Amino acid sequence: MTVRRYPVAIALVFVTAALILSNGFAFWGDTVALWIDDAMQLSAGLSGVVCGFLVARRVPGHQRWWRVLVATGMAGWSLGQCVWSWYQLIDGRGLPSPSLADVGYLSFPLFALPALFVLAHARSRPERERWQPAQWFGVAVVLDGLVVTGSLFILTWTAALGQVVRATGPDALTWAVAIAYPLTDLVVVVVAVLLVVFDRVDRPYRANLLLAAVGIVALACSDSVFAYLVSIGAESMKPWSDAGFVLGPLFITFALLFTPRARRHDDAGQAVGVDWWQVALPYLPVTAVALLITVQLLAGAGPDGVEVSVGVLVVFLVLARQLLSLLDNRLLLRRVYEGQLQLTHQAYHDPLTGLANRALFADRLDRAVEQAADGGHRALVLIFVDLDDFKEVNDRFGHAGGDVLLHAVAQRLLSCVRAGDTVARLGGDEFAILLEGELDAPQAVADRIQSALRRPFAVHGTLVPVRASMGLVVPDPAEPLVTSDVLLGRADSSMYAGKRLGKDTTVVYHPSPDSPPDFPSALRRADGGLPEGFALVFQPIVRLADETPVAVEALARWTTRDGTAVSPETFVRAAEGAGLGAELDALVLDLACREITAAGLDLTVHVNVCASRLGAAALEERLIVEITETVPVPDLAAGAAAIRRLQALGVRVALDDFGAGYSSLTVLHALPVDLIKLDRALTTGVQPDRDAALCRSLVGLCADLDVAVVAEGIETAEQAELVVRAGCTTAQGYRFGRPAPLSQLRLSTLSAG
């Protein structure tokens, strides 16, 4: 039987159950009902015999032998049924006991019990399943088994066993045969239930075990009824009482027929699901016992001494099992906590050397700088170490030899500093050392490190000399708001200066008047205010028909103390590299909004800022945020959602430098912008015919999409004429005004009006 035939099997079960139910009413007479009942029992038993032996011929190993054992047991059971039918239908003796029928019936559990163990042994056990997560798994199995056994014993005692034990049979043999049914059934049922409980849900032969267990339980139920009727001297059994003798062999036949598909190789890596029956099944018999005792108390026929004694034992076993679960959960939580600590350590430490990695070093350096900025006045020294000619070691000994050397260098560096200092491997052959607190002369610390590294290292049995270039930085307490990025940059530049001097040396950083301007430091010193030398200029955007300004674009400018004008590309890139891009965006946006508002100009202002930051609410309807296309948009869907959020606030969005960088029609289609600014490369007039055709196409496309167009970089009348012929109505460029302070722009605007 395969999974495809499950509906047929389910339908057969329902039809059989319906036939048993209708036959129990004996509409066609008791005699006919008995004939039908016995025929159904015998047919079900013989089907198990035939199917078992037929399938056993087609399967190998353990899968064959457990089927042979079950089929043999069903053969004995069927022979007993034949004898029983003879007595009941032909000989007319009623319910003789003991008889040869008992020999056949009792042979089934004798074969079923070893068959269950053979089936359990045949189940595949992948390596990943052999380890159990619970430390007390073996004890838990024993406790769950005892709980199930005790509960089923109480149910069996109440249903039949107690009555049989208390009954006064005609002789000892009759009593022994009568009690053999519930006892053997109890043993087989307990074994089957325990195998179901502790089986894994993804094992291929689980369906065989479940079907066999259901059949065994069904047989046991009817056996218990039979034993009870014998104990009270009943002369007949109604067909309803024999339901287990029909459905039980039927389910056992399904178990013999079921052949699972071969386990695929890719199934081994799949996650194992949670089988809630494994959790609940041990407690279902306990629940049944509780309900049974409750009914007995309500009926006034309280439980006898055996039920009370075994019930108390089951209660203590359940309590012990719960205590074990609590202990196991506590151990599991401890393992999870230890695993989290290990993951945290791996996330912040270099796997090769065990030193702090770049992330942990940056965090500690940031904290040290913050403490110094808050007035802690803790001494701080940063040393950047780079091994000289490390590539030669890799070429000579291979990467394995290089790893050995890096690990040894890490240990030497640790030996040169105190326990509270931080030594990190930043990557490759680069190391960094952070010294905090009361320190010796920094140069003496560097000399100690140099001396330690100059002692040869043993690599694969060979002594290897190591040299290192180091950059040393001691922050000046008088210098405010120095950042970790600045310190690392200084240490790195000092280290490379040492390499240029001939390697194997230490260079201490000293500020130089010839050093490049440091815009990030100026931005930090401003602390949210206007950095020294920073200002905005504005360039008009005009209507081409009459060259009247309709908008302005805010552009950032920065001049050093000595009057040097630093290009925007330079200081913007420096701010981005120092992680201050968001602060610069906010500064430009807020300053532009304030100046336009103070000037009282009724002009739209264009600002190149991060899309997640907005200025004053009063300018939302006259603010256009320009998205530059010098870098690709990483997620167009997320970018489109961000643009819609801005538009919902009244802020319009423009696509800057369209036609250059990473712009494309796909970007224009995906991003719901309000305006595009054509890059000056499309309006230079180098190829007038091609430029005009391109501009006409883009302007027409944007008109269909209801997107406005501004032509950038217009410097001559010819370029202006080109974009006018293309259909463009607004433009920006030196022809209409150079970037200038707002006061000068206002004068030009008034004169234009």
Short description:
The chain has 753 residues and is of the alpha/beta class. Helices cover 58% and strands 12% of the residues. It starts with 5 loop residues before the first helix and ends with a helix.
Q: What's the total helix number?
A: 24
Distance between the termini: 92 Å
Rg for CA atoms: 44 Å
Which stretches are poorly predicted, pLDDT < 50 over at least 5 residues? 124-137, 265-274, 611-619, 747-753
User: What fraction of the residues are assigned to beta strands by DSSP?
Assistant: 5-15%
What value does the average pLDDT take? 78
Side by side, the strands of the main sheet go 8-9-11-12-13-14-15-16
Number of strands: 16
Global morphology: elongated
Helical residue percent?
A: 55-70%
Summing up helix and strand content along with how strands pair, one would put the structural category as alpha/beta
* Major pleated sheet: 8 strands, mixed, barrel
Strands, helices and their partners?
Layout: H1 6-24, H2 30-56, H3 61-91, H4 100-122, H5 127-130, H6 137-166, H7 172-197, H8 206-231, H9 243-257, H10 276-280, H11 284-299, H12 305-347, H13 358-376, E1 380-387, H14 390-415, E2 422-427, E3 430-436, H15 442-454, E4 457-459, E5 462-464, E6 468-473, H16 484-500, E7 506-508, H17 519-526, E8 534-543, E9 548-559, E10 565-566, H18 568-577, H19 581-599, E11 604-607, E12 623-627, H20 636-648, E13 652-658, H21 665-670, E14 675-678, H22 688-704, E15 708-711, H23 717-725, E16 730-732, H24 742-752
Parallel strand pairs: 6-7, 9-11, 11-12, 12-13, 13-14, 14-15, 15-16
Antiparallel strand pairs: 1-3, 1-6, 2-3, 4-5, 8-9, 8-16, 9-10
Helix pairs in contact: 1-9, 2-3, 2-9, 3-4, 4-7, 6-7, 6-8, 6-11, 6-12, 7-8, 8-9
